[in-house]
Structures are given as C-alpha cells and as structure tokens.
Amino acid sequence: MNNFKRIFIAVMALFCSTTLLAGCGGSNADNTVKERYLHIATGNTSGTYYPIGGAISEILNSKIADMHSSVQTTSGSIANIKLLEEGTVELAIIQNDIADYAVNGTEMFKDENKYKFDTLRGIATLYAETCQFVTKADSGVNTIPDLKGKKVCVGAEGSGAEANARQLLGIYGMTYDDIQPVYLSFSAGSKALIDGTIDAAFLTAGAPTAAVKDVAAQLKIKILPIDDKHFTALAEKYPYYSRMIIPTGTYANLDEDVPTVSVMAILACNDKVDKDLGYQLTKTLFDNLNTLKSAHSAISKLDKNQAMASEHMTLPFNEGAEKFFKE
Known about the structure:
Layout: H1 2-24, E1 36-41, H2 49-63, E2 67-72, H3 77-86, E3 91-95, H4 96-104, E4 121-136, E5 151-153, H5 160-171, E6 180-182, H6 186-195, E7 200-205, H7 210-216, E8 221-223, H8 228-237, E9 242-246, E10 258-269, H9 275-287, H10 289-293, H11 304-307, H12 319-326
Parallel strand pairs: 1-2, 1-3, 5-6, 5-7
Antiparallel strand pairs: 3-10, 4-7, 4-8, 4-10, 9-10
Helix pairs in contact: 6-7, 9-12
C-alpha cells in the first residue's frame, strides 16, 4: 500500500507540474499555444517609421496578452513589401504609392515576377509622408528647376523616395539627365549635404524628419516649394499625391511655410494576420491612440476617419480592421 501511495503521489505531482508549465506557455485546453509573434518592418533609425513602429510594438506587447512583438529596421517601403510577401514579417509601415506599384506590377516592381503581392492587406492609413527637397539657404537654389546641373541626392537607388524624386522632377520637365543624381539613404544624404559634397538632398518622410533636423542643427536650410500649377499636374498623373504645407518652425531657422506634396504612410499586413487578430490589433492601437501619437509629431493628427480613408488606402483592408472601423 505504501508503494502504491508513493507512485500515486509521484504521478499526481508530474501531472500538476505539466499543467502548470502548459499554463505558463499560454496553452489552451486543447494544448494549442496562445502566444503570438508579430514582427514589424519599419525603416532606418533616422526616419519616421522606426519610432512609430516601436510605439506600435510597445502598445501591442503591453495591451494584448501573450503578444510578442518586435521591430525590424529596414531600408524602407520596398524592402518592407517584399518582407511581407515572403512572410518574414507580419506587419510593416509602407508608402501608399509603393503599395500601389506592388499590387499593379509597375515602377520598381514591374520585373518582380517571383512576387504576387496578393496577400497584402491594409490595417490603417497613418500619416502624411512629406516630399522634401532640402538645400543650404545660401546655395542659390530656390526652385526645383534651379537644380539643373547640381548634385542631388535622390534617395537610395530603387527606393520609394527615389521614385518620388523622379516623378517630381518629371512634372517640371526634368529627368536625371538634367542633374547629377547621387543615390544615398536619408542619413547618408544629410551628411553629404552638411559636408558640401552634394547641393541638395531629397527625401520622403514624416516632417519633422530626424535626418533634416540634423542638417538644420548645423547649417541654415531651405526646402524647395512646389507650386499649385505643378501640384495639380502631379496629382492628375499620380492620384496618391496630396497637398502638404511644411509649417514655419518645423525645422530650425525655417522662417516661412513651404508648400510641397506628400504621399501617405500606411500600416500593412499579410495573411498571417487573420480577421480576428486584425480586429484585435487595430482596436488596441486606437484604444491607445494618445500613446501612439506621442511617438512622433508626424502622427499627431491621426484619427479613425483618416485611418480608414479609402482614398489613401491603396490595398484591400484586412477584414478585421475593416470591421473595427465600421463599428
């Protein structure tokens, strides 16, 4: 009898410890693990995607039980779309124009036959990404046509910013043959402008942009304006462009409003984010909107109306996100 009792106690102890371990692992009664992992593709640390992606990750980790979210730095929208397609990440911040190129197989995606991009879905439109031609205040360059013959950083080769630069120059009747194009990232372009090895740098990012703030902290800058006539022509040809004003004081010594244009940054996912998770994460982000807004001033105007605006979302909505916005 004593041996039987000892065996019974040992078996019960093993059963209880196994049950406790299963509970710590976040398992359901059917032993299905509840823990979820979301990888968020952002951009480089000198841009706007990175701090906003970090805020999204922190909110999801703190507000959704058994959530393990992490942020991945990347070269930007094009890389992020490919990472979504490959399933390497589940969420990403991307430009809405680049998403449009991907699903329609145009621009930098016209030869990407190995990608289908049919699993891409939109969660929300986040904020305006401002197109900025930056030069030194004493450069003698006052308009985009003044860039002729100048060394201009147009962004990393094949990047979303580079496509924007090419389109903007085109609206003014210019091509890369009219300038000396230099292909550099935001951060490298800002350093080159400070060093004087280029005459102007172009970038597409939420303003104020860290890379531009770095330049403005060391020398007086100006941002080239885009007039109404050329904005109208641009928007007719590329409807995802919107009017944008960079207000006085956005950067040090910027002493007047600058009219320019923008595309929109959107939060996108792939089919690893199903309807239920899409609903949960969208609701969680908008239930904690003030926390999200504190990540960067570029996102300070985000609300549900902007997030669900169909004119800016160039991907089909995730079903769960759409359900949340319709409630």
